[in-house]
Amino acid sequence: MPSICLYFQVHQPLRVKKYRIFDIGKDHNYFNDQSFSNLNNKNILEKVANKAYLPANELLLSMLKKNKDFKISFSFSGIFLEQLKEFNPRLLKSFRDLVKTGKVEILSETYYHSLSFFYSLAEFESQVELHRKIIWDLFGKKPAVFRNTELAYNNDLAYWANQNGYKAILAEGWDTVLGWRSPNFVYEPNIGQVKNGKKKIKLLLKNYKLSDDIAFRFSEKRWKEWPLTAEKFASWINQINGSGEVVNLFMDYETFGEHQWKEHGIFDFLKALPDKLLENKDNNFVTPSETVEKYPARDIVDVPYIVTWADSERDLSAWTGNNIQKSALKNIYLLEKRVKEVNNKKILEDWRRLQTSDHFYYMCTKWFSDGDVHKYFNPYESPYDAFISYMNVLNDFKIRLTELNKRKPGVVRKSIN
């Protein structure tokens, strides 16, 4: 073999607008406006839809219909699907058409693309349930495989996913995690004994070298392997025969048309790849669920710390690496009890939208090896501008929350400012 497991993450945040100190107490519309000209949320979604999502969907639909052995999987953030319902029903229909082929698996994740597992288990579970509901409502599917925001993973998350009935969980196949082992096998996470006689969940690890050849290096003319053709890439997969069972190619869906432009040949590459891979009769395509049914776990992988698929460090430092990020995260999650006590739908929705990980990513000050990545559709002039807008919004949000607390009869509450 090996089998090829193709997975695409699809997400666009609701970015916080340029929110000034003078807006506090006056403006409660934190997200969609024109303060960023062409970088407001609606325009960004339209741009990426036209350049990447729609042409990629059209191509994949024809490929899925043409090739009976071709299969793919997606993970959609709930907040992305929410925007499709409001701004771009045509794009939503095109994703639904892909799923209707019966050859697309949808994965589970947090609705708001948040880091909530590491800050509030109760909130995390609420967001996973909200995500489950929107996937059922829009696609009629019940996800069986879990994928956390930015592939953020550790043993504790795997234990949670196991106890909640998932058959597999995705993670980065990072060298420090694997040691001498290959990402091209199925593994078990190190979760010790499991309760209630449940089967142990399986762990699918991204082959980051081959995935990043497509996602990041495809159009890099200084790369020694440029130009990357489908024939060349298939030859690399074929070399794994005998030393691996599954190649997990995980990447952002914006790879096709946005990160890598049509003019550089990325759609031609994608169109040709399945046929080139399947020229070798030992190769086949599988979804994550099919992968764990097809292959046994070959070893146990221990990940006691958090590993992600972001930046050169593969940790949470892209979101929590400096003091302004830590302050923003601390402040938003400190409000959880108050938010849920007031039982106000709009307050809860705004609070959850403010948890989206992109807000903290835009505050990152790592402007060295990973700087260009952090500029992608970042509407702020600097990380500090992102922090200032976010904290101004949070101060307005606290005022709203305090007012709602005051209105509750027979309850005396302290100010949360």
From TrEMBL:
> Hydrolase among the record's keywords?
yes
Keywords per UniProt: Carbohydrate metabolism, Hydrolase
Keyword field contains Membrane? no
Q: Where is the Glycoside hydrolase family 57 N-terminal domain?
A: 6-304
Q: Which InterPro entries match?
A: GH57_Enzymes, Glyco_hydro/deAcase_b/a-brl, Glyco_hydro_57_N
A molecular function (GO) held by this record is: hydrolase activity
Q: Which GO terms describe its biological process?
A: carbohydrate metabolic process
Q: Mind telling me which SUPFAM superfamilies this protein's record contains?
A: Glycoside hydrolase/deacetylase
Family (UniProt): Belongs to the glycosyl hydrolase 57 family.
**Name of the protein:** Glycosyl hydrolase, family 57
Native species: Candidatus Woesebacteria bacterium GW2011_GWA1_39_21
